[in-house]
Amino acid sequence: MKDKIENESITNIVILGSTGSIGRQALEVADKHPQRFRVIALAARDEVSLLQEQVQKYNPLAVAVSDPKAYLQLKEKIGGQCRVLAGIDGICELSSLPEVDTVLVAVSGAVGIKPTLAAIRAHKRIALANKETLVAAGDIVMKSAREENVAIIPVDSEHSAVFQCLQGESSYLKKVWLTASGGPFRNFTSEELEKVTVDMALKHPNWSMGPKITIDSASLMNKGLEVIEAHHLFNVDYDLIQVLVQRESVIHSMVELVDGSFLAHLGVADMRIPIQYALTWPGRLESPARSLDFTSLAKIHFDQVDDSRFPCLSLAYGAGRAGGTMPAVLNAANEIAVSSFLNGKIKFTDIPGLVEKTMGKHNLVKDPGLEIIFEADNWARETCQAMID
Ligand code: MG
């Protein structure tokens, strides 16, 4: 077995979002298996000093930053050592470098759409950690992947779980069961939710993640975005995607098959497992994550989501069912609302209302092209921001 693993050829990976939580954990996975992974390009938004450290350590062929000021700083610091590219075009260029086998898309937000499409067109395998790409442009991205015969392997833990359960079983799928931890405020009353602070919302009970997704987990918008993501990844109707609160985050999701069998994916809540699987699929490698201890776990709880306290989930189902530009609007309005909450401008409980009002003002476009989606995204940001101001 060990020989087989060592004989597998090297996978050249590019990490888009290398300074973020998923990007850093992906580098840990690469560190653990230097015989299997070579990091050949890195991209980030503006964290110059961490990116510089990563360049010293991994010696990539090229790096890209989307922020123009960061580009100038980085160019000055490491320009002699490797190619430095700028902006979204630079990030798209990294995704299509001829040396690249797999592109890990781990940037945060709708900025992931163009590099994902560029990687698909260049026939790279996609390890997709950026759910906004599928939420805003799922129809276009999945169609392009089918046409180019490119595999999109989900990194999001729930979708990785479903994807793993469906290996060899996808034609028997009846229903997708996405699990949710319920977030840190699962048991809060509506009055308590009104008083939630940024610090409280940033403490997720089970998972270690970046700030945007941690707030989304607390509001359950994250689960809503994941429902839309699952619809696109697994080609299932919204009526056949069920969300279940599983507060210990031990069952990472399940599939129900036509014969009444349920397959579940269990493990510790450690993102390095789904990140690594997306890079090794259909094979597996040893993981730095610890094993699951069932005796200390003792109990697994299941609950329903309370829509009245956590309205974001049903807003997302609504946007998904409406289709067209609506999921992009939901996502963009939510990004603005979450960043305003993080900056102390609005209350935690203002988030769903702002998203709902933005959706209510939107003139839906069915079957939009990419430009129309970006227009709707921009419109939603401006509309939501205007309401906050
Ligand atoms: Mg998830």
Task: Describe the structure concisely.
The protein is built from 18 helices and 11 strands. With 389 residues, it is an alpha/beta fold.
Describe this structure in words.
With 389 residues, the chain is α/β, with parallel strands linked by helices. It folds into 3 domains: 2-154, Rossmann fold, CATH 3.40.50.720; 157-270 and 286-317, no CATH class; 323-389, Orthogonal Bundle (Rna Polymerase Sigma Factor, Chain: A). Helix content is 49%, strand content 15%. The chain is built from 18 helices and 11 strands. It has helices at residues 2-7, 21-32, 48-58, 68-78, 87-95, 113-121, 131-148, 157-165, 190-194, 198-201, 211-219, 221-234, 272-280, 294-297, 312-322, 326-342, 350-361, 370-388, and strands at residues 11-16, 37-44, 62-65, 83-86, 102-105, 125-128, 152-154, 173-180, 241-245, 251-257, 262-266. A 7-stranded parallel β-sheet has the order 4-3-2-1-5-6-7, with helices on both faces. Helix 4 links the parallel strand 3 and strand 4 (83-86). Helix 7 packs antiparallel against helix 16 and helix 15 (312-322) runs antiparallel to helix 16 (326-342). The relative contact order is 0.11. Mean pLDDT is 95; it is low at 1-6. The site of magnesium ion has 4 residues, from helix 8. Magnesium ion binds at residues 156-158, 226.
Count helical runs.
Answer: 18
CATH architecture of the largest domain: 3-Layer(aba) Sandwich
Q: Can you identify the CATH superfamily of the largest domain?
A: NAD(P)-binding Rossmann-like Domain
Q: What's the overall average pLDDT, rounded?
A: 95
Extract low-pLDDT stretches: 1-6
Give the spatial strand order of the biggest sheet. Answer: 4-3-2-1-5-6-7
Helix content: 40-55%
N-to-C SSE string, H for helix and E for strand = HEHEHEHEHEHEHEHEHHHHEEEHHHHHH
**CATH level 1 class label of the largest domain:** Alpha Beta
Shape: globular
Major pleated sheet: 7 strands, parallel
What is the total tally of β strands? 11
What is the CA-atom radius of gyration, in angstroms? 20 Å
How does the helix and strand content classify structurally?
A: alpha/beta
Distance between the termini: 60 Å
The distinct bound ligands, ions and cofactors come out as:
magnesium ion
Q: Approximately how much beta-strand content do the residues carry? A: 5-15%
